[in-house]
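Sorry to interrupt, but I need a hand with the structure work. Please put the record directly below this note.
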Amino acid sequence: MSAAETILTAEEIRNLLNDGSVLVLDVRPADEFTAAHVRGTVNAPYRRRVFGTLVRAQLDPAEYTLAVLADSDVVARAAAQELEQAGFRVAGHAHGAPESWESAGLTVDRVEEWDVDELAARLQSPEAPEVIDVREPYEWRMGHIQGAKHIPLDQLEARMAELDPERPYALICASGNRSAYAAQLLQARGFRAPINVRGGVYEWARRGHPLER
């Protein structure tokens, strides 16, 4: 039996998260993850047949051992197998709803989200968050929020030392998908208040907020 077939208990998931040697992927849809997820996990929505390739585009198999959380045993097994086929070391998989993990003693978190109008209003406050734009360089050059810091998503892990875990950060991309992943990743790494901006730069511009070029 491959390691991907190993079924993990809540206690084993907790130990993996505490140890830090295994990255636990929650493979539910992004909106479900944002609403409630086990603290320390990272979202990677499952897409059949291309899942391993998509994860490999973000994570280096040589650096990461992974485990899978899903709300379905079938999805959990399939995701774990596809990760193994993509070259990752896989510690195992588990399934269940967030409520079941919470009742088993795991801490359940939620990612805060703002729409673009709320971000615009908050940026006028003395306690404004720093905006982190995780788009690609060519997207950044087309227009970005004044004062934003540019860290493409594929560089975020390597550049976390540039950020203060105690400071609030508003993560933005083109539409809100990549920034949701970025916010989740910061939260999993112990950052206090990462915020995902729904709608992203497209919606920011559509609502008439200024962009700097």
Observations:
- The chain has a mean pLDDT of 92.
- The longest strand covers residues 89-95.
- The chain is about 35% helix and 20% strand.
